[in-house]
Amino acid sequence: MGDILFLAHRVPYPPDRGDKIRSCHILKYLGSRAPVHLLAFADDARDLGHDAELARHTVSATVIPRSKSMLVAGLQSLVRGTPASIAAFDHRSMRKAVGEVLAGHAIDAIYVFSGQMAQYIPRDFAGRLVMDFVDMDSAKFAAYAKDAHGPMAWINAREGRLIADHERAVAARADVSLFVSEAEAALFRAQGGAARVQVVENGIDTEFYDGDAGFERLNAAGPLIVFTGQMDYRPNVEAVDWFAREILPQVRASYPQARFAIVGRRPGGTVTALGKLSGVIVTGEVEDVRSWLAAATIAVAPLELARGIQNKVLEAMAMARPVVATPAAACGIDHGGALRVAEDANAFASEVVALLDDPSAARALGAAARARMVERYGWSARFSVLDTLVGLATPGRAGDRSAA
């Protein structure tokens, strides 16, 4: 086959947040099998300057800084009648770059990562089109609308409706639409999505996320409960706020020395304020999240709103940590019973306390979690279906770049 154009709403390197972890590994997989041209946005200065790493997996890579505010995007969306999250990624330089790649190379397939980038698919493109929605953004905004009041309820409901229309229109055109879990795919089908829907799950690098791997280790005195994630992401903010205020006090009633570490970059005012509560640690960005996971007595994922598969859960399980998660955070993960699931604050606290009460059971749960990750969630096994979906050269053909 010819070349692949890979469009990403965030540059797939470094893989330091959920969406970038998935896009990074997909880019590596595609780049090992065909020439790939990457066009991506960067909304953080730290995402620039990784040309050497991207060159290992692409034949060309263009990263365009994006700084449009949501206020400007919101005003544009009202004028144009489009979703604000689509307007936020509308950029003249990206349109120009797409045109130049298509004019200068024999592009047989376009891999679109995230619905925001579908606006750059040329109307006359006749090659294979793979749309990786990952999860349903429209459902996320619909959920926001139910929890909001006043103008925000209207804004989120409008965004959800418009994104749903956008998702259906894009899926109708794509050769295949990808979702990260069967739950997301089923929801899309049920809400009128196209029939050409495929599940491509996330995986986990079990060699990197290994409690026995070499990295700096933290010394933890007393029970340490750890949450990891991007801390300017609303579901994560709501999750840690709920745990710190409603669950942790119940845990500390039994274990007064228990501490709750919120590990992740860009904590805003709500999260930073939690650091003033007894037993709560807010780290901000850390050099290596594995150090905190290795030190954790228990990892938690108390998300009330979650879409797709939670990488934070896969990472903690791969590190052989006992994990307690809400049904929303566990949804889509074929965990085989190797994590504890609890829905309300009382049940969640009870599960945490039960694991603290029985260290041997906690160690056994962690060992089972890692075994499940090794068995079920290797990246190569998860992505092998892409060979057919994208029309890739099979490994071993002349065009194979796996040795690069």
What does this structure look like?
There is one protein chain. Strand 8, helix 9 and strand 9 (259-263) form a beta-alpha-beta unit. This protein is of the alpha/beta class. It has 17 helices and 13 strands. Strands 3-2-1-4-5-6-7 form a seven-stranded parallel β-sheet, sandwiched between helices. Strands 10-9-8-11-12-13 form a six-stranded parallel β-sheet, sandwiched between helices. It has helices at 18-31, 51-55, 70-80, 84-87, 92-104, 137-147, 151-173, 182-190, 234-254, 269-274, 289-295, 311-318, 327-330, 345-357, 359-376, 379-383, 386-390, and strands spanning 3-8, 36-42, 60-65, 107-113, 128-134, 176-179, 197-199, 224-228, 259-263, 280-284, 298-301, 323-325, 340-341. Pfam families: Glyco_trans_1_4. This is TIGR03087 family PEP-CTERM/XrtA system glycosyltransferase.
Q: Please tell me how large the radius of gyration is.
A: 21 Å
What is the number of strand segments? 13
H/E element sequence: EHEHEHHHEEHHEHEEHEHEHEHEHEHHHH
Question: Which term fits the overall shape?
Answer: globular
| Architecture per CATH nomenclature, i.e. the level-2 architecture of the largest domain | 3-Layer(aba) Sandwich
CATH third-tier fold name of the largest domain: Rossmann fold
End-to-end separation in angstroms reads 18 Å
Note the total helix count: 17
The CATH class label of the largest domain is: Alpha Beta
Count of all domains: 2
- Which strand-content bin applies to the residues? 15-25%
Question: Quick gist of this model?
Answer:
This protein is α/β, with parallel strands linked by helices and 404 residues long. It is 44% helix and 16% strand.
